[in-house]
Design a protein that fits this description.
This protein has 265 residues and is an alpha/beta fold. Helices cover 31% and strands 22% of the residues. The protein has eight helices and 13 strands. The chain has a six-stranded mixed sheet. A five-stranded parallel sheet has the order 9-8-7-11-13, sandwiched between helices. The longest helix is centred in the C-terminal third of the chain and has 14 residues. The radius of gyration is 19 Å and the shape is globular. It starts with 12 loop residues before the first strand and ends in a 13-residue tail after the last helix. 39% of the residues are buried.
């Protein structure tokens, strides 16, 4: 839902939050509050898009009045084939969670993992257990300079290839699979970017357990944290941090040059 009092004119910079259940998230409303507080003539609109319509939606964005989009977790790997330009982080990881339109070109980047890095730094986290080898794990590793990371996955060969690809020298790699007893309580943070159905093998969690999944997404980490009475942080717990990062990203891209005070109709 958009905020009461928001007004759209032909000067308004429009952005989309694209996801299967985008309208059920407070992401757009949170960013719109920030736009309003900063006197920016911009608005994010939740866009419920099915996977079958995702490519069509982004293709049409090139000729639309929508100036960019934040992309929900389920579609971060779907955007790459439609991008005209991409950051190094996007190319390396194979995911894109934010894009802007420059005339009829779509330029992709990553904002969520920057947020996660800064969040962990602000919590003084140093020692991190990273579970998974997929695109989000790659993106996090790309930004995660300064952390002492231990890597966990059920397939050691894939895990070794992952750490080699990410340039992790003398990486601490660990197998994690059902039937094992894995105590992660000595870590400052547990970051789960795996696709595991269960994390029952974890007997101890840390003070920070995070996977940045939305409420509608199944989270094995959330299930295990609830079972153990441990803290859990998902996407919806970080809306303020994500909104601030999106705002700064758009500002740095010169997308928010004009505020409401100098609008001309």
């Amino acid at each position: 839902m958009m905020n009461n009092g928001n007004e759209i004119s032909h000067h308004t910079k429009l952005y989309g939050f694209i996801g299967e259940y985008a309208a059920q998230s407070s992401m757009s409303a949170t960013l719109n509050k920030l736009f309003k507080a900063q006197n920016k003539n911009a608005m994010m609109i939740p866009m419920n898009i099915r996977e079958d319509d995702f490519f069509f939606t982004l293709s049409n964005m090139k000729k639309s009045h929508v100036n960019g989009a934040l992309i929900s977790n389920e579609y971060v790997k779907n955007a790459l084939e439609i991008l005209d330009e991409a950051s190094e982080a996007v190319k390396l990881s194979g995911m894109c969670d934010i894009l802007i339109r420059d005339e009829q070109k779509l330029i992709g980047d990553i904002v969520g993992m920057r947020v996660l890095k800064e969040f962990l730094e602000n919590k003084n986290a140093k020692k991190v257990a990273l579970i998974g080898v997929g695109s989000r794990a790659k993106a996090f590793s790309f930004f995660a300079n300064g952390f002492d990371i231990s890597y966990f996955y059920d397939d050691l060969e894939k895990l070794m290839n992952f750490t080699k690809e990410m340039g992790a020298i003398n990486a601490d790699i660990n197998r994690i699979t059902e039937g094992m007893d894995i105590d992660l309580s000595s870590y400052d943070a547990v970051v789960d970017f795996s696709d595991f159905d269960t994390l029952d093998m974890i007997s101890g969690l840390s003070a920070i357990n995070i996977d940045m999944k939305q409420k509608k997404e199944f989270s094995a980490l959330k299930v295990r944290a609830n079972e153990m009475g441990a803290a859990y942080i998902g996407f919806d717990n970080m809306l303020d941090e994500i909104s601030s990062a999106v705002f700064e990203f758009l500002k740095n891209k010169k997308h928010l040059e004009h505020d409401k005070s100098d609008m001309k109709f």
